[in-house]
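Q: What residues go here?
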């Protein structure tokens, strides 16, 4: 589907009260949807956690997940690893108990159990007991109470601080690309204050044009960096709505922010599928102007996604 058609549909939906949920429905039509959500969320949560090292959970730790989305599986994975308290936040309340039940049935997957066991503070007997507790909950309220999870949606930064002022672990999965530069700046400033001296702030960011993402509405005719071709005004006209917003920033921007707020930073860039290149001559001046430093244009299309690791010491 031509990306402008999808953008037009999303703009229309953005004016409706249930627009974001309606936009999400086509993804859920696959018979494997809940299984795929579980696998993606759980293994990505494990992958990010691995950067912390084996000794990290030898004392009690508190985690903040930015961007719960439609699934609690990332937060559940952190609980099973051994985090004592988890706050998970989102701009809209998209978690539904019935979906959680459908996704949590895959907790007994042998590969997942083994992966957790090699990293968790719990032995197998305790871990299986905790999984049984999760399976037996009757509603979200009891789930959150038993697992010491706080779910805030919608939220402001100040709402987080009502429950917790410092965090050992702050994480997100393909969320930062949907946050405006102004809010990103505020978030990095907050994270610097929230993160404890030996903590980790680890975030996976997708840098490509989401209209090129695989799926029913994918535009197979465009480059994965097609959105870098357009002025701010043109892109705002087509995709500037609450459903389709993407900030069009590369990893360079996040490195700049990390440096601005004094983080020690490690970045792991990757290309996870066959690349559809964009000639750098087509990159619009408005895109280049987003950066404080002079950028090498090839860097703006260098990675499809990457993981940002921030520490204070």
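A:
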């Amino acid at each position: 589907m031509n990306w402008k058609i999808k953008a037009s549909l999303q703009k229309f939906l953005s004016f409706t009260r249930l627009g974001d949920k309606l936009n999400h429905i086509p993804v859920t039509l696959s018979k494997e949807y809940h299984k795929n959500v579980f696998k993606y969320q759980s293994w990505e949560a494990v992958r990010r956690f691995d950067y912390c090292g084996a000794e990290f959970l030898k004392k009690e730790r508190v985690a903040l997940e930015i961007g719960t989305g439609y699934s609690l599986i990332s937060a559940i994975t952190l609980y099973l690893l051994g985090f004592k308290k988890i706050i998970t936040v989102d701009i809209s309340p998209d978690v539904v108990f019935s979906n959680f039940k459908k996704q949590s049935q895959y907790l007994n997957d042998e590969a997942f159990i083994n992966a957790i066991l090699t990293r968790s503070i719990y032995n197998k007997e305790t871990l299986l007991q905790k999984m049984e507790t999760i399976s037996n909950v009757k509603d979200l309220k009891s789930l959150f109470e038993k697992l010491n999870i706080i779910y805030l949606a919608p939220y402001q930064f100040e709402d987080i601080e009502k429950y917790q002022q410092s965090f050992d672990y702050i994480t997100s999965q393909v969320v930062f690309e949907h946050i405006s530069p102004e809010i990103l700046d505020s978030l990095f400033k907050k994270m610097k204050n929230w993160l404890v001296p030996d903590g980790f702030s680890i975030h996976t960011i997708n840098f490509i044009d989401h209209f090129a993402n695989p799926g029913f509405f994918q535009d197979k005719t465009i480059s994965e960096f097609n959105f870098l071709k357009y002025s701010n005004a043109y892109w705002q006209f087509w995709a500037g709505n609450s459903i389709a917003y993407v900030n069009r920033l590369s990893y360079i921007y996040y490195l700049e922010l990390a440096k601005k707020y004094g983080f020690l930073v490690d970045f792991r860039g990757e290309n996870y599928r066959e690349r559809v290149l964009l000639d750098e001559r087509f990159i619009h001046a408005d895109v280049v102007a987003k950066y404080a430093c002079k950028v090498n244009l090839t860097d703006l299309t260098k990675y499809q996604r990457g993981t940002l690791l921030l520490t204070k010491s």
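A: Context that may help when evaluating the design: The chain is about 40% helix and 15% strand. The radius of gyration is 20 Å.
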